[in-house]
Design brief:
It is a single chain. This protein has 200 residues and is α+β, with helices and mostly antiparallel strands. The chain contains 3 helices and 15 strands. The strands form 4 sheets. It has a 6-stranded mixed β-sheet with strand order 3-6-8-9-10-11. Strands 12-13-14-15 form a 4-stranded antiparallel β-sheet, covered by helices on one side. The two termini are 28 Å apart. The mean pLDDT is 87.
Length: 200
């Protein structure tokens, strides 16, 4: 159920700070979006995907992967007025300079959103491409069905097509993935079947 407060009462904000419930909150052009804590299955696929990418992509290539980083518009006076928090971010060396420790000053190479029912993953697409993200991966939490979105003309975006066998290729990670059935995500480095894994 979605709810809109014209103004969030101070006691609710204080309770969220005190209980750490605000760690997934986002600010969308000055409007607070309060997201619930992800469930165990969401956290499991996020963790296992991050570990696979760290071992097979980030470490061998001098790249970086981080969970839940504040991604903000580049070069604005107050980044906390407009930011999103993807589940994972993929960063290649050419973009290391956007890392401000507390937030990213602009878009990383790719972001990953584990899509849970009623979350706002798809509503974030315009923002991600506006700040310069090259790929947005959306992975359905329950079915593990993956999608990759990429920039398209005039500031838009489009869904990347899978091949005849259902594999979606990421240019950023040099990897491909597909839903494997039974709630698993199959992933491998392109052209390297020995790296294949089924997550989670």
């Amino acid at each position: 159920m979605k709810a809109v407060f014209a103004s969030v009462p101070d006691h609710i904000l204080e309770w969220r700070r005190r209980t750490d419930a605000d760690q997934w909150d986002e600010m969308w052009e000055g409007v607070l979006h309060m997201a619930p804590s992800p469930n165990r299955e969401h956290q499991s696929i996020e963790f296992k995907l991050a570990m696979w990418l760290e071992q097979n992509w980030a470490e061998p290539n001098g790249c970086r992967i981080y969970p839940q980083i504040n991604v903000a518009e580049p070069d604005i006076d107050k980044w906390t007025d407009n930011y999103r928090i993807p589940d994972l971010v993929l960063l290649m060396p050419a973009r290391f300079n956007i890392d401000r420790n507390e937030y990213f000053n602009g878009g990383p190479d790719a972001v990953v959103e584990i899509h849970s029912p009623e979350d706002e993953a798809y509503e974030k697409l315009d923002f991600y491409f506006k700040v310069g993200v090259r790929e947005v991966w959306i992975i359905e939490r329950d079915s593990k069905r993956p999608e990759i979105y990429e920039p398209a003309g005039a500031g838009g975006h489009q869904l990347r097509k899978a091949d005849a066998n259902g594999w979606l290729r990421s240019d950023v990670a040099g990897a491909e993935f597909r839903a494997a059935g039974n709630g698993k995500l199959e992933i491998r480095l392109t052209g390297r079947p020995e790296t294949a894994a089924r997550l989670p």
